[in-house]
Specification:
Blueprint (H helix, E strand, L loop, with lengths): L2 H27 L9 H30 L8 H22 L2 H23 L14 H24 L10
Helix pairs in contact: 2-3, 2-4, 2-5, 3-4, 4-5
Length: 171
Amino acid sequence: MNSSHTTTMLRDHRSARRDSVAARAAQLLARGPARMKSPSARWAVSVLAVVGAALMVWSGVIHLQLWSDGYRSISVIGPLFLIQGIGGIALAVVIAVFRRVVLMAAGAVMMAATAAGLLLSAGIGLFGFQESLAVPYAMSSLAVEFAAAAVLAAASAIILAARPGSRPVRR
């Protein structure tokens, strides 16, 4: 057998396997509750997605309020508060409408990162700014953000753990 032909066949096989792994990952991330077999699991995911989205909106509103109360004048932190407020609300709406694993996981990561940013800022400072957990909204912000992260992570885990059914999608 021609060795260059064998090499090409092996390369094509590896490439096809890599493509199938990427396709499988994309399928998993695009999964939503609509194709889940269990009605109670579909209901639970939908409720968790909406609750998580509502918590994200709450966090976004807190950040927009703080931005308008004076954080806008703080270098780097001010624009980040504005981005978090607008981006959080926008992602929350998309999560509530589409309820896909990738969106809920992104929301969970965003909320956990936002809470971690506050803790870093209060502990060692962030971008030259030292925050305190005694300021208005700090503790409620942490509670809302960690709760949102947990709720959205739970919804994602339920979808990923469920076996997809052959239930037709309603139109």
